[in-house]
Design goal:
Layout (H helix, E strand, L loop, with lengths): L1 H32 L1 H15 L3 E2 L6 E2 L7 H17 L16 E2 L3 E14 L1 E2 L14 E2 L2 E2 L4 E2 L1 E2 L3 E2 L11 E2 L1 E7 L2 E10 L8 H7 L7 E12 L4 E11 L5 E11 L6 H35 L9 H24 L7 E3 L4 E3 L8 H28 L8 H35 L9 H12 L5 H7 L3 H40 L4 H5 L2 H12 L13 E3 L5 E3 L6 H8 L3 H4 L6 H7 L7 H10 L11 H43 L3
Antiparallel strand pairs: 1-2, 3-4, 4-9, 4-13, 4-14, 5-6, 7-8, 10-11, 12-13, 14-15, 15-16, 17-18, 19-20
Helix pairs in contact: 1-5, 1-7, 1-14, 5-6, 6-7, 8-9, 8-11, 10-11
Amino acid sequence: VVRRKMEQTVRAYQFVRYLIFSGLSLYVVWLQRDAEPACSLQIGLKDYFMGGYRDPNTLEIKNFMSISTVDEFWDWHMYAFCPDLIYVQDLANGEPMTSEINTMMQHNRLTSGFRMTQRRGKPSTCPIQKKWWVFAPTCTQRTYVEGLVGAVDKNPFTGALPDDPANPPVYVYEEVDLGVGMKDTGYFQIFGGDPSECARIPELKRQRWINTHTQYYRLDFVVYNPNVGLFTSINFKIVFDNSGVLIPEYYAETLSSTIYTSWTDMVRLGLEIGVVIWWTIIMTVCMIRARTIAKQEKRWMAYFDETINIFVCVQLILIGAIFIIWGLMATNPIRDGLIVTGDSIRTTEGRMPNFQGLVAMSQLYFILCGINCLIILTVILSFMRINANLSQLTDTISFMLRDLMQFLVILVLLIVAFMLMAHSLFGNTLEEFADLGRCFVSVFEFLMGSGDYFELAEADPVAAPLFFFPFVFVMLFVTLNITIAIIMDGYTAMQDNRKIAKEGFFAEMTILPFHDQVFHGFLRLFSFANRYFPQKWSEIKSHNGRIVDRFECASGQEIINLFSDIEEEVENQLIPFDQLLRLLRHKPISPERLAGIFDRYNAWGSANDGSAAEYAATFSEQLLPDLTSLNNLVATIQNEQKVLENKIEHIIMAFPT
């Protein structure tokens, strides 16, 4: 009991330190994210750029997300984006802007035009039989990851309808350095900040700058809002699938225009430095502990026998990677290299700002921060074992984990089977079952009860019941309920374990409320000032009714040292108090102080309690003979049954039917 309490005390102090470190690191990330103005800005800009325009051919109201053909692609550029959205020349009352032209939504000003980028797939002969080549001689190889991976075509190509056939327009694949070893690649078209640049778009359409080999397209530009000090990198992306489908996507990311300039930035810098120093200390302590335990156990990986140590080490490594990425973002030269004038914000090379590298690092940074939050939650749940009332979830998981992991194999097999079934039945008619990734999400939605049967029936009225009703019966009625039963078995085992603990030596630790445990820890931490505490704070009422002084009672380490020499002689058995005093005669402890230890930890035994040896003797003298007689009786009955069976067989042979 004493060792258990000492372990919990050490773990509690570790938990407090870990909680402070994690809370401080998360607060720093919250300050870095500055999500409220960024979210407001992004929502407003998205609503602005997703505004509709009237199609000149069909007179329908469309927007960027409704683009489905190459003609609609060019119409959006010529009739919506270029003249009305990006180049703002008039005020709200219709008067022309005399200053700060190209300012959208009153405060967001275009920095220096926009850029169109495309990436292409290599042309090749079609992967079909040769007899079809006459009809379809050329195909385009597929690319992946925004046209960066796969059969990427980097060769120049010419316009389709040159004004001078001897000197056609040539479009060249380029690479632009973004810093920190990152590059932006593709076929670029750079547009300045003047509305006259819009005249180039019909020419690009005429020259078929977007053609059958285009795999990926991006239109990006940067606006600046001085009120919140944020750049917003806006990206309109379209994937040109080999099936002919156009998949539009809108994405925006905000970036601070300055770093470490205001007093709030300096406060955040101080907190960041504090987190780095604390991380270094924790990393050093963990390495020292790992080395010490490895020497004691003579195994290099002995430190990782405890699951919580694995999570903490993974988190420390992850936080180290987060520090590196933030350092790369903070030292990226693109902000300092911007040339700011009254008309534009450009790089030192005279180009428009390209924040694609910073945007990619920012995305990765906050993704890792999100993973870090998940690890923090896992570690905190592990630390909840310091109190029996808080560890119910963790203990339930530990009791059910083995059975659940074994059943998970069956669950995965069933999900994969229904995924493949749905893919084969509806993959060619419903988009959500077209590939395995979306198919998994859709099957999981059906498992959660949010699937739509009538959508399946509309796609295929014959296949819908073949998939839906077996899925509902197997996954919802059977599998899901078995999963719940396994969880309930774990919870029941946890409660049974708590019930046993309440009846044993760990009763006090099992029923102790968390707030009382925190209060007791507070008293231990400030025990040097106990003379100023109220009298009732120092009193502990033992189970036998005696009052023990909390601060005068022997410490845990003192008790361990006291019984270390005679532990084997007294462990798990009752001995008279005077005999214990004789065993401890070489220890400097009085009978009164020793009795106080027994009072404090409820270690007194009853006079009617027997030892394990007495129970073994009783078992040998009384129960064992009875069990032997019972075994002999069972053997006799079995022999008589065999004799009876043989007689019946003889009768059947003598009188065949």
